[in-house]
Amino acid sequence: xxxxxxxxxxxxxxxxxxxxxxxxxxxxxxxxxxxxxxxxxxxxxxxxxxxxxxxxxxxxxxxxxxxxxxxxxxxxxxxxxxxxxxxxxxxxxxxxxxxxxxxxxxxxxxxxxxxxxxxxxxxxxxxxxxxxxxxxxxxxxxxxxxxxxxxxxxxxxxxxxxxxxxxxxxxxxxxxxxxxxxxxxxxxxxxxxxxxxxxxxxxxxxxxxxxxxxxxxxxxxxxxxxxxxxxxxxxxxxxxxxxxxxxxxxxxxxxxxxxxxxxxxxxxxxxxxxxxxxxxxxxxxxxxxxxxxxxxxxxxxxxxxxxxxxxxxxxxxxxxxxxxxxxxxxxxxxxxxxxxxxxxxxxxxxxxxxxxxxxxxxxxxxxxxxxxxxxxxxxxxxxxxxxxxxxxxxxxxxxxxxxxxxxxxxxxxxxxxxxxxxxxxxxxxxxxxxxxxxxxxxxxxxxxxxxxxxxxxxxxxxxxxxxxxxxxxxxxxxxxxxxxxxxxxxxxxxxxxxxxxxxxxxxxxxxxxxxxxxxxxxxxxxxxxxxxxx
Length: 534
Fold this sequence. Notes:
By secondary structure, the protein is mainly alpha-helical. It is built from 20 helices and nine strands. The protein is flat and about 95 Å long.
């Protein structure tokens, strides 16, 4: 007997013979079940976890979510704390919600794959009765691959009648349609085909294709094949819409980059090759603000906008006072001089921040995407940039058409000598115009910091495109800048899927050359004395 090995199992931490009758671990209340999670046995943890699900405790959902995310800890006294996702030093008691400090005695509660799957299913199932429609939609997205689970089907059938959110209701209808297509009768299958046909989801297309191959009903097969073609058309339209959105976002960036250049080039006749570096300065302002005030990460971009406008505007004033004002009337010399200024600014930034690229974090309210269709999603940062570019355009239009400065700028642009005779200081107007254009360039840099890394060469990527927008739209015309920027952005994104990014850029240059040959003054040419007409 001493040499005989006896297999044992562990029940309530007590070894018993494997041939003994199984003992069911029971927990009298929620606290006891919670403490069971600290057991060294995964079997005991699983039992505790399932027992917790039977208690209607207000702390159940946050505890299970923290456990699933690997953020639940316990000490020797079975005190449980949860770590906040956004802040590594944010800990609180899971039962009292009081803040606490993590000590060396706290150990992370580990789970195995079985517990992880149970948590995933439990959280998703209970999300269907959540008051938050986003959670309900996420749960339905997770269920889509489990349309053969009759338990889930029954649960969805029980709540779809009370669902008020249209998006969640559609997801539930698609889920039930998948189930009916696989296990329903002919009438239910025909109805399911109609439901899936109205979606724009490639997964539903694959389900219908598979059904059309295995069904023996000729009518249902034809209906499924027609539904497949309908989904293909919807997906194609969604892809076109996505391409259009990418084009609009690129066009918005071009408008932001060119709108300040359009004013300085149109009013002063200055070819400012340092315009891209003024955008770079604005992007670095966003980076500095985030580094200086990490506690205000959510508002950092909003704070950086006026800071970038002021800093870039002041740099623009220095460039105009020290360099440009001595070269008025000599555009080629301003081109060379401002190109030298751009090199100086690049090297200055390299000396201060190093040549390495810097990353500006995206605030939480700009993160994520707007899911319009299963195959169409727009990232929120691009949506905000499109809106922001329109706001900047509106600001510049009001500035140029509804303020005294705008009136003086237009007067100087039309006839500098006559404006001087009317008492307008052309030197003051030139300085303020250059400052305004430079400030808008800095604001554009803040927007660009959300799309790309910030580095000394950031401005060089957009200076040529900015001049193209100004020339195509018409020198000094804000509406021309808006139309040209959006048009060039959309055309560029339309060409890319067919010919690639590099060849698309070449085709755009060829198109612009041909356009200038036909319309040398752009889409919205200046008229009268401003254009040199008699």
